[in-house]
């Protein structure tokens, strides 16, 4: 069997015969080229991230759901009631939800806890016009935050597992009603 000689390793330090003559780049030119190369790499990484996470269903996180403070659950109404009737009604409804409890899937549950609409209805004290205005402002406040896909106050209320977001929305609706002079 004939002995085969290995070919010598190529000299990587020697310039390629057909290569253009080397040009010395300034520091600024090298930084520009490095920046361009990094931008390309970051763009490729961003596309790869989007492709790899496209199947993951996520919902936006509202910091108000995470960063919380102690709730004042005293039985007395706040001293500063809104002066407009709809705003005052929404403030009383929020207070009722805080003190009496929040529920879903019913206006009032067996323990006496109420949903958003149930709290508005009891605090309206039979004034259906006032109740309708308060519910309309509440729905408007909900849609401002969660979009126009929300069909009604009861459907929004029942979509939550705790009363934290519904209570916050009743409070925002009270501010909105006060700002509108309702």
Structure, described:
The chain has 7 helices and no strands. The protein has 182 residues and is mainly alpha-helical. The protein has a domain at 83-180. Helix 3 (85-100) runs antiparallel to helix 7 and helix 4 packs antiparallel against helix 5. The mean pLDDT is 83.
Strand content: under 5%
C-alpha-based Rg, rounded:
32 Å
Fraction of residues in helix: 40-55%
First-last Cα distance: 103 Å
Classification by helices and strands:
mainly alpha
**Number of helical runs?**
7
Average pLDDT number: 83
Number of strands: 0
* Succession of helices and strands: HHHHHHH
- What's the story with the biggest beta sheet? none
Which consecutive residue ranges, at least 5 long each, have pLDDT under 50? none
Q: Which term fits the overall shape? A: elongated
Task: Annotate the secondary structure layout.
Blueprint: H1 27-53, H2 63-66, H3 85-100, H4 116-124, H5 128-146, H6 153-158, H7 164-180
Provide the descriptors you would attach to this structure in a database record.
single chain, 182 residues, mainly alpha, elongated
In short:
The chain has helices at 27-53, 63-66, 85-100, 116-124, 128-146, 153-158, 164-180. With 182 residues, it is an all-alpha fold. The longest helix has 27 residues, at 27-53.
């Amino acid at each position: 069997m004939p002995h085969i000689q290995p070919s010598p390793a190529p000299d990587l330090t020697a310039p390629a015969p057909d290569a253009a003559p080397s040009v010395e780049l300034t520091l600024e030119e090298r930084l520009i080229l490095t920046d361009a190369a990094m931008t390309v790499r970051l763009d490729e990484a961003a596309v790869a991230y989007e492709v790899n996470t496209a199947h993951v269903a996520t919902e936006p996180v509202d910091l108000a759901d995470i960063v919380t403070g102690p709730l004042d659950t005293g039985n007395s109404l706040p001293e500063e009631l809104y002066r407009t009737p709809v705003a005052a009604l929404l403030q009383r409804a929020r207070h009722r939800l805080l003190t009496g409890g929040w529920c879903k899937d019913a206006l009032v549950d067996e323990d006496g806890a109420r949903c958003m609409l149930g709290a508005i209805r009891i605090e309206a004290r039979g004034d259906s016009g006032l109740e309708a205005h308060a519910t309309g402002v509440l729905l408007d406040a909900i849609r401002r935050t969660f979009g126009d896909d929300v069909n009604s106050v009861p459907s929004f209320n029942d979509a939550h597992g705790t009363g934290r977001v519904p209570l916050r929305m009743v409070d925002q609706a009270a501010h909105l009603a006060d700002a509108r002079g309702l």
